[in-house]
Amino acid sequence: MKIAIIGYGKMGKAVEAIAVKRGHQIAVKADAPGPSAEQIKGCDAAIEFTGPASAVSNILTCFKAGVPAVVGSTGWYDDFNKIKNECITGGHALLTATNFSVGVNIFFELNRRLADLMQHTGSYSVAMDETHHIHKLDSPSGTAITLADDLVKGYKLKEKWEEAVPGVQPAGHVLPIYSHRKGETVGTHVITYTSEVDKIEIRHEAFSRDGFALGAVVAAEWLADKKGVFTMKDVLGIQ
To answer: How far, CA to CA in Å, does 21 sit from each of 172, 202, 216?
Structure first.
């Protein structure tokens, strides 16, 4: 495959290394905010990791060039429905994920299942902590938001999530997300259910960016001959 990398930072370089190892050609390496449609035209897929400020314009550039877009940027989802409609009506291909790691996508499933089980107890409070590197632009992380949305759907004692304010006790119907930015931490997400007698905790910790990069390349391989809007659940066959 000929792949365009949009956003040639640490993630872009990790994607390049994995893609080359898997036998692909990197046809374009574009720094943020992104390339023109003419630059990426003829590529089999584009993998986009820039940021919330440029993600939407880069997706539209991919559509204009007729290139399937794999998008790892987060923080732009207020525009998701607009982009989804543009993708479907224009016959384009888009795959978005708040996290491409296979392990994280399994973690998503564990979170959904645990929330469903825990809602029948009625005696546990629940909170989430997420920690990332100091360069991350959005907070909470896209992965944390996905986890929180799924948890609130399954655990009926929580009506919504909010980013927690240090020193302020969240309301009982709110799932608090405590966001931390420390050093070069790749990404850690912890969900904790606590009662008066015990604690149940699930945790995912990424050791490097390679898991994200591998997932993004696998997603690009999967998307190359398709049309429509997809997620990692489609790639992994998760029902």
So the answer is: 49, 32, 14
- In the three-class reduction of DSSP (H, G, I as helix; E, B as strand; rest coil), residue 125 is classed as strand
Helix (H, G, I), strand (E, B) or coil at 117: helix
Question: What are 123-158's pLDDT values in tens digits?
Answer: 899 999 999 999 887 889 989 999 999 999 999 889
Catalytic residue, from 24, 92, 136, 189: name it. 136
Nearest of 33, 56, 30 to residue 46 by alpha carbon: 30
pTM metric for this prediction: 0.80
At residue 176, the 3 state secondary structure works out as strand
CA separation for the pair 13, 182 (Å, rounded): 22
Say how far residue 28 (Cα) sits from the centre of its chain. 23
Distance of CA 176 to the CA centre of its chain: 19
Rounded to 5 degrees, what are φ and ψ at 146?
-60, -45
Annotated catalytic residue, options 24, 82, 84, 132: 132
Task: Tell me the C-alpha to C-alpha distance, in Å, between residue 41 and each of 46, 63, 107, 149, 152.
Answer: 10, 10, 36, 36, 41
Give the tens place of pLDDT for each residue, 12-33: 999 999 999 999 999 999 998 8
| Count of CB atoms situated within 10 Å of the CB of 3 | 28
| Known catalytic residue at 136 | yes
- Residue 173 is a catalytic residue: no
